Amino acid sequence: MTADPVTGSPVLVTGASGFIASHIVQQLLEGGYRVRGTVRDPDKTRAEGHLTGLKGARERLELATAELLTPGAFDDAVRECEYVIHTASPYAIDVADPQRDLVDPAVSGTISLLESCQKADSPKRVVLTSSVAAITDQADGHVNTESDWNTRSSLTRNPYYYSKTLAEQAAWQFMEAGSPGFDLVVINPFFVIGPSLVPGINTSHTSLIGLTNGSIPAVLAFHWPMVDVRDVARAHIMATENPAAGGRYIVAAEARTMRQVIELLRDNGWGDRYKLPSIGLDNAVGVALTRFAARFQAAGTRDYMRSHLGGEMRFDNTKARRELGLDFRDVDQTILDTMDDLEHWGHLGKKR
Predict the structure, then answer these.
(1) Is 91's pLDDT higher than 70?
(2) Half-sphere exposure of 110 toward its Cβ, with a 13 Å CA cutoff?
(3) 21, 87 in Cβ contact below 8 A?
(4) What number of other Cβ atoms are within 10 A of residue 43's Cβ?
(5) N or C, which end of the chain is more exposed by having fewer CB within 10 Å?
(6) How far apart are CA 260 and CA 262, in angstroms?
(7) pLDDT digits (tens, 9 = 90+) for 167-176
(8) Which residues are catalytic?
(9) What distance in Å separates the CA atoms of residue 130 and residue 278, rounded to the nearest whole number?
(10) Rounded to whole angstroms, how far apart are CA atoms 281 and 278?
């Protein structure tokens, strides 16, 4: 971050109580910024104290109400803000109605936010939290860059990925069609893990939790490009502060297979405290068996397993390193930090 805030006005962070957003709020406060965060229920958020207890929050954090599907929900929140960071969007793999539960809130919420910014005429830049999901939904060995778009997902195949793709495309289309008085920068993180400032379980953490509670009973052939949530938050702020930033940024550090993650945990004593998977299905026969078993899983889980099992998810993070100056934390240390934090919140399985 820069030595001094680039604005004296509040920086708006939507979905401020979320996993990534709460870290953005924390880092903005640490940087001396005034922050305005939107949440569904400000009174509940204040009572919980996870955001309001952050250093600097008493003096420089205000909370506002905003619902993604409410027309004009961000009109009041965006007033006087020169910089807006939009993180609010549903993140779930298995839902009852993908259109209602994923696509509508993701797309409508993004457009609503951009329309509010256009009406307010104060924002200079919007930084949008997108995802690798808008780049690809297939572990096919292709080296993904910012020029890639997910063209495979649909309401019936990886609908969460579909919602993120449509939301980001809608944002770029809005910018092209409306020529608003602000610019747009997009952050596309991969598998985001790390310590949480809020007690809820981040969806990306469910795989790590599953290694300790029996829901993942074997070593599966997954390949996860990972990034620390603190680096993702920092990328958003760097994109806010750097006038030359533009376009999309892949934010990912390094990839690890499930086997590598489990070996790391064993080497650091986690196997002594929790029963970790030991049966190896990360081979050709195991992949075939797991794909067959996926037929009996919920639709979202089934799609994810079919499109990711046995493949390699590759990426190029050169643009984020070069243009934002982003350096990444060590992935192995992030995994261990995450496990410590999940244990702290009581999310892991029963100890031995």
Answers:
(1) no
(2) 27
(3) yes
(4) 10
(5) C
(6) 5
(7) 999 999 999 9
(8) 164
(9) 35
(10) 9
